[in-house]
């Protein structure tokens, strides 16, 4: 990998970001042994690449950058695909890390949705689990990792120090721009997240693709599932309206399925396909514009 490529994509595997999330937000109180493993992890090369990934994310995600990406991608002129084609397309995303320990993208989606289904949740919630990461096809359109995955956060106002690696924001130009670096920046108190620009990535992109087709809680889950600074840290409640507060209960409900689901037996794609085919058909049109 040459230096320029490395600059674009420091992670060996885009899911290293999610692995890092599990370290930050462990499922249970962690044992001494796990703490030790975590310390080893901190020193590891993988952790260094995650740090570099966040550095690039935090210095490059500016208000103008997001506006540019919106102009570029919300034309939806890249590709027309059925959801199934999109899943297959996403699954061509092959990373150079150990294939034995990592799940492919389809397995992550199915494990998430099957865990939601097993808990008896409504079908739209199951479908949301199944498609929540399809926006990662951005990687296959040549976008750098830091503009596809990673925690998301509002741009256009002060970066919270509750966002992971907050020190890296020092080099973000918006951080020294008086228009953008105050508590509310370009926003007003409790203006509602619908009026707030989030850092650009797979969440916002997929939300924009699906916004006409799914129930409101599903759309909140898709749009804000990487907004850890809010759903885990409550750092931006001052921008939220009462609808956001209500809907974030669903975002919080979804997060453990996304982060901690690892089925002992891999879901059988072939056996599950008829169920998901029917579910997709119930909610989505034949073709989606990416
Ligand atoms: Fe995601
Ligand atoms: Fe996910």
TrEMBL record:
Pfam families (alphabetical): MIOX
Keyword Kinase: no
Cellular localisation: Cytoplasm
InterPro entries in the cross-refs: Inositol_oxygenase
UniProt feature coiled coil, ranges: none
Record's keyword terms, sorted: Cytoplasm, Iron, Metal-binding, Oxidoreductase
Entry GO MF terms: inositol oxygenase activity; iron ion binding
Protein name: Inositol oxygenase
Native source organism of the sequence: Algibacter pectinivorans
């Amino acid at each position: 990998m040459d230096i320029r490529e490395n600059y674009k994509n420091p992670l060996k595997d885009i899911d290293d970001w999610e692995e890092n999330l599990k370290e930050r937000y462990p499922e249970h109180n962690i044992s001494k042994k796990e703490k030790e493993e975590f310390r080893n992890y901190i020193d590891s090369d993988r952790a260094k690449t995650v740090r570099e990934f966040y550095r690039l994310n935090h210095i490059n995600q500016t208000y103008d950058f997001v506006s540019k990406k919106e102009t570029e991608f919300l034309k939806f002129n890249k590709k027309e695909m059925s959801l199934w084609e999109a899943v297959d397309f996403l699954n061509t995303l092959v990373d150079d890390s150990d294939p034995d320990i990592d799940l492919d993208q389809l397995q992550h989606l199915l494990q998430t949705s099957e865990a939601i289904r097993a808990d008896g949740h409504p079908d739209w919630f199951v479908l949301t689990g199944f498609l929540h990461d399809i926006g990662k096809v951005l990687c296959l359109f040549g976008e750098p990792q830091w503009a596809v995955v990673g925690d998301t956060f509002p741009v256009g106002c002060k970066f919270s120090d509750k966002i992971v690696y907050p020190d890296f924001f020092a080099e973000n130009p918006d951080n020294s721009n008086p228009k953008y670096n105050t508590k509310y920046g370009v926003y007003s108190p409790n203006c509602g997240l619908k009026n707030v620009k989030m850092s650009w990535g797979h969440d916002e992109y997929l939300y924009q693709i699906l916004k006409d087709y799914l129930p409101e809680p599903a759309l909140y889950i898709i749009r804000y599932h990487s907004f850890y600074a809010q759903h885990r840290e409550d750092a931006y409640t001052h921008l939220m309206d009462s609808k956001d507060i209500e809907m974030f209960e669903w975002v919080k409900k979804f997060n453990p399925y996304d982060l901690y689901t690892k089925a002992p037996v891999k879901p059988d794609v072939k056996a599950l396909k008829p169920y998901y085919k029917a579910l997709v058909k119930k909610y989505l049109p034949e073709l989606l514009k990416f």
